[in-house]
Structure prediction request, 483 residues.
Amino acid sequence: MDYATVTRDHRTFRLILRAMSRPGEVQRLPEFIGDENVVVELLRPLVDNATTVAVLGDSRLAEELALGCRCPLAAVAEADFVVVAPGADTTPLDRCKRGDLLYPDGGATLLYLVDDLEQDEAGTLLSGPGIAGAIRLRISGLGEGELTRLSRLNGEFPLGVDAMFVARRNSAQLACIPRSTRIGGP
Amino acid sequence: MSRAEQTAPTPEQNSPAIDPGYPFAFMDEGAKREIRRALLKAVAIPGYQVPYGSREMPIARGWGTGGLQITLALILPEDVLKVIDQGCDGSVNAVNIKKFVAKVAGVTVTTDTREATLIQTRHRIPEERMTSNQILVLQVPYPEALREVEPSENETRRMHAEADYTRMWLHLYEDIVRYGEITISYRYPVTVAGRYITDPSPIPRWDVPKLHMADTLFLFGAGREKRIYAIPPHTEVIPLEFEDHPFRTEDFTGKRCARCGSDHSFLDEVIDDHSGARRYFCSDTGYCDKRRAGWNR
Prediction:
């Protein structure tokens, strides 16, 4: 990989790390991440032939990802990373990996493509590690009941999944809800 | 974050351009990706030790390779890097790591905590409060807090899985029975976010409260033991204690740094070989230097 791509990956990862360690805080992604390449750019610092990826609801994106990141595709139940395209049927997510008590880090990482992310009074209340008190995050374009599903998947800490949300309206934005975050009221 | 421009550049700050013989940040991309995945899981499960494939580094294992690998996996060319070894910016280990990272990533280096965006440290947390825009990477020799009471990795893993920490508590209780208080001076075990008992690395007790509800992200790397773990900002970090034997930090009442006069920093005791007199110095040399230069007087 050339210098430009390598440093781009460093830059992207730094933002992902910030978003994951400060749940609910919306991060503006760098300008080189446009509408077309957002999923490949976001996952390239993280995935390669050592990890499996599943894509729900967009077979073309799955191919792009397999080519762009050289990662093998897998069924949702086996995948380390699961990308959820807008409007996809998300019922298979109930079967995704949540790790086990000995190795909870085996839980999957989810990447939801949504319309918009906003720190907003009308947003969902989030609290837990990484959040000073509580924070409100409004996610537009996320299927109804998805946050309830996340709460359910993460109901047995330390088992669970860690979710990233990327919005492409205006400029690309990122926010995360790891398994340690309490979704909804305290 | 104020960059180095305001101050006159010292030879050290004029970091050499990236050595063309190395890829950016030295490691291969596959290694970095594995470390990054471990870091994200570590942040998502505060205090849990994520296993990872620790790589060979151009320094020996046990000399900060865990911290170095984390630093290299996330560094940016515009980062301002500070490396400290037991509070000291000038020790051989710290200087070598700093030079190496500057060579392979082209970063600016500093000794000023406030100026740094990324700090790699061995066995101390800086005296000055760190901000939300900084990351502290801690080098860890023994990541397993339960190793004192259980030699088997399989067994400590089970204990963490079941949150079965009775033997740790018993260990502390026996300490009190024998000596009247908990005698652990560094590597003081903490409970992170109410779940995992975690080794905060060999920082003195003095630094343990700085982990609690901090603004900064703390990343821990144990290269030889192949573990990565994290304490996110705004996370509860509670040292193990009993109601009648509360945790306490080192007591420096009546003592001052012989160099800068500080009566509120962690002090190293130095005994003069000839006179036998005891003198105290700030362990955080960057902080001490800054006070000497007239900062905040």
